Input
Amino acid sequence: MKLPFIVVVDDDEHVLRAIQRDIRNEFRDDYRVSATESAGEALELIKELKLKNETVALFVSDQRMPEMEGVVFLEKAKAIYPEAKMILLTAYSDIEAAIRAINTVKLDHYLLKPWNPPEEKLYPVMNDLLDEWQSLYKPDHEGTRIIGFQWSPKSHRLKEFLSGNLIPYVWMDVESNADTEKYLVSAGVTRESLPLVVLNDGTWMADPALPDLALRIGLRQTATQAMYDVVIIGAGPAGLAASVYGSCEGLKTLLIERSNPGGQAGSSSRIENYLGFPTGLSGAELTRRAMAQTLRFGTEILTPKEVKRIRLQDGYKILEMSDGSEVHGKTIVIATGVEYMKLQVPGLDNFTGAGVYYGSASVEAHACKDQVVYIVGGGNSACQAAMYISKFAKEVNMLIRRDTIKSLAANYLVENISKTPNIRVLPNTEVASVEGNGVLEKITLKNSKTGEETTVPAKALFIYIGARPGTSWLDDIVLKDAKGFIKTGSDLMKEKLFGTFWKLEREPFMPETSVPGIFASGDVRSTALAGISSAVGEGSMAIRFVRKYLESV
Ligand SMILES: Cc1cc2nc3c(=O)[nH]c(=O)nc-3n(C[C@H](O)[C@H](O)[C@H](O)COP(=O)(O)OP(=O)(O)OC[C@H]3O[C@@H](n4cnc5c(N)ncnc54)[C@H](O)[C@@H]3O)c2cc1C
Output
C-alpha cells in the first residue's frame, strides 16, 4: 500500500530543514514527507498528487511567507484535500492570526516556534491529528462496504451503526455506482435483498440484523463475568466517562449500549465548547478517544445490547437484556440520556431513514451534495447540523416556529448561521405534510402567521426539536419526576414519602437514586444541566460515589 503524504511548507530554509528532519524521524515508517520553501510550489505538488490519486494526511505550513500567508495556503490546500489535517507554524506575534484561522479555515492546531523538544511539543499533536485522520480515512480499495439504495432506511440503519461504532466503511449507492454490480453478482444477491455488507475478509451479509453484524465485525455480545462492581447503562458522554473512571480505579466495569457509543454527542458534527479543544472536535472523534481510553483501562463493552429491566435480589442488581441474557452488578449507573422527540406530521414515520432523519447530519450530509435540504428546529443541535450540511448541500433551510433564532441557540452559532450564505432561516414555518413514493420527495410548509402553504421538492428533512428521557422501561424501580427524569440525592429528600422508600441512616449520595447503589448521571438525571461537559462531569463523579457505596456494604 502507498503511504500517505505529510506536506510541509516554510520559506525559511533552516526551519524547513529542522521540521522536516523531526517529522521524518518520527513518522517515516507510516508517511512520506514532502517539504518545500514555496507555497506556490507546494500547491502545484498537491495538485499533482491529487491527479496521481495519492493521499495527503496533513499539511504543516508557516504563517509568514512572502508569497502567500500560511492561512491562505492552507485554505487552498484544503480545497484539494478536504479531509487532510492542518497545522499552522506561528511566531508568538502571529497568535491572533492563528486563532482567526481556527474559524476561517477550520485549522486543527497552531504550533508555536520553536517546537523543542519535539517529543513534547510536536509529536503528541501530530500523533493525535494523524490518528483522527486515519480513523476517518476510507481508502477506496479496501475496508468494509455497504451496498444499497441511498434513500433506504435499511441502508441508513447500517451506515449509522458502523459509523457510530467507529468502524470505517465505504458506502456504495447501487443506483449511481456501476462497480456495485460485480459485488451483487459475486454474492448472488438481487437488488431486492439489499443492503449488502461486504466485510474486510471478502465475506458478505445481505440485510443483516445488527447483533449478527456486530458479532462478525468483532463487537462483544456476551459478558465475560457473572458479576461486575459497576454496570453502566448507556455509552454517551456520561456513561463513557463513568466507564473510564470505573476501570481506571480498578472496578470490574461493564458498559452496555443499545446502539452506538457516543450517544447524542456522537451525532454532533462539531462540538466547540468542550474544554481543551479550542478548534472544536466532532462527536465521532470525542467518542473514538473516549472508547480508546476506556478499553485501554479494561472496560468491557456490550453493543448493541438494550437493558430492558432491572431486578433487585439479595442486595444485588440484575439487569435483563432484550435478548433475554442477564448480568449481575453490585452497583449500576444509569446514563441513558434522552431520545429525540418525534415530529408529529401525518405519514412522516413512513420516511424515517428514507429522507427524514433524527440527528443524523454527520452520517447523511455527504448524500445531500448539491441538494436543497430542510432542517426543523433552531436550537444548538439544529444550528450545528445546518452548518455542517451547508458544506455539501446547495441550500439549507431552517424551519423555526419563532420569529428569529436569536433566543434559540448559542450566540456563536447564531452568528455563524447568519454568515453562511447558503443557509436560510424561515421563521414562523412548520411542516404541514410530506409526500413521496417510498422516499421523501416533497414537503408542504405552512406559515403559522399567514396560514399560507407552499409545497417544495425536498430530498432530506433533518429534525431537531428537543428530547425526552426514555425511562419507561425502568417502571417504578427508581423515583422519577413528572417528565420521566430520574430523581437523585437531595431532590429525593424533598419527597413527602422519603422515609417510606429510603431506609438507610445516611442520606442518598448526590447522584444516587431512590435505590441505594443505583446511580443516575447525565441528561437522564432530573435537574441535570444538559451538555457534554456536565454529562462527563456527572459520569466521572458517579464513580466516586460508587466506591463509597461499595465500601459501605
Ligand atoms: C446533534 C447534537 C449536538 C450537540 N452538540 C453539543 C455541543 O456542541 N455541546 C454540548 O455541550 N452539548 C451538545 N449536545 C448535547 C449533548 O450531546 C448531551 O447533553 C450529552 O450527549 C448527554 O450525554 P448523556 O451521556 O447523558 O446521554 P446521551 O448522549 O443521550 O447518551 C445516552 C446513551 O444511552 C443509550 N441508551 C439509552 N437507553 C438504553 C438502554 N435501555 N440500554 C442500553 N443503552 C441505552 C443511548 O443509545 C445513548 O447512546 C448536542 C446534542 C445533539 C443531539
